Amino acid sequence: MLHMLICCTKTLIIKYCRCVIGILTYCTKCPNATTCHSFHTSSRSANKQDFYGVLGVSRTATQKDIKKAYYQLAKKYHPDTSPDDPDAKEKFAKLAEAYEVLSDEVKRKQYDTYGAAGFDPNRAGQNQQQYYRTGGTSIDPEELFRKIFGEFTGGMHFGNMHNMFEQRPEFVMELSFSEAAKGVSKELSVNIEDDCPRCEGKGSEPGTKVSQCSYCNGTGMETLNTGPFMMRSTCRRCGGKGSIIITACIMCRGSGQTKKRQTVTVPVPAGVENGQTVRMSVGSREILITFRVQRSPVFRRDGLNIHSDVFISIAQAILGGTATGQGLYETISMVIPPSCQPDQVIRLQGKGIRRMNSYSYGDHYVHIKIRVPKKLTRRQRSLLLTYAEEETDVQGTVTGVSPSAGESYTHTVQHYFSVVCRQTRRNT
Question: Which residues belong to the signal peptide in this entry (predicted)?
């Protein structure tokens, strides 16, 4: 019995020592223990947390890439965007924590060196050492998103951010190739929801009062506790308005919005491409317009450059000259060099498509096609046969001029035409 008690005691002591060793790290070589960096244990999830993975960026990502990744993911997991996702609030808070560390060069360097275990935040400033903390962030996730949101939207007021999360109506506009390339103002009929004309979007009957929301005390924001995170979100009761409607508007029934059909003029910028989508404000709302560009029977587009074909005669191809063709903005004239080959390309600089929101233009590439006549006059045929007599680099034969023993090219040509004349007389 005593032997068993001793064995159990030894086992407990060994387990206790292992536990202590696993928790504490001793500095055995440092003469001054007070200046040593003390590392603290963290949860298993914190040790495995990857801030780069949270934002979906590589470890070599630039600050611009990190900010853009945070903004896109924060919009996706914002509590107002994903009200049906129970994990959205926690994901939103983790994004803020990851961005807070990686957007600060000093904290990012510490994180790259020591990982997500972090340092003791109470020791910040000692030995000129900067510390960050995991398992929580020192910035309100909602306030951080407000700040980044303002940067990406050019200072747009965050109070109207709920409009950004609403589904924008989408419309399709058909454009000809020329309209897309040169730009045009075109009318479009749309059905949209806009501010109610009776209550001006307030939702309450004109002349009546609204009461302050008791859930958020009129701030429009509520504080949520999501485990280790504390964050502020849009009030679920008043929808961020800070007030509660007592008497609803009889026209919109308290929604503040009414549907209406109207015709808007869309300023299509020069250079839009097929499938490109733009945003346009209609009243207090935004709509999305996707352009469908029809194919051109003349032009082919390659970015800002256009391609087209121009047909020239055999004489133009051999002797050179000038040719005209259809351009995007006007009739084009070009010089045909002597001995022009089929599919030879002539570049007309600056005659292509204008770059959107710029004054630069692409080029127009003209592909030369040689038109072979289907019918010839007698004189044309005679001249061609005479020309054929002088050719020395023919691979094979030319009908009507192939020489035979004891016959000259001239005799062959004369014989050919005599045969043609006899056949013509018989047919008549």
Answer: 1-19
Domains and CATH numbers, the chain: 37-165 (1.10.287.110), 300-370 (2.60.260.20), 378-388+399-427 (no CATH)
CA-to-CA distance for 165 and 344, rounded, in angstroms? 53
Nearest residue to 121 (alpha-carbon basis) of 112, 113, 110: 110
**Residue 239 CB contacts under 8 Å (≥ 6 apart), including other chains:** 162
For the beta carbon of residue 291, count every other beta carbon within 10 angstroms: 21
CA-CA distances (angstroms) from residue 242 to 89, 102, 156, 334?
21, 34, 20, 69
For the four alpha carbons of 383, 386, 387 and 388, in that order, the dihedral sign comes to positive
Residue pLDDT, tens place only, 187-227: 999 887 778 888 888 888 898 888 888 888 888 887 776 66
- Report DSSP state, residue 327: -
Give residue-wise pLDDT tens across range 386-416. 988 888 888 888 888 866 433 444 444 454 4
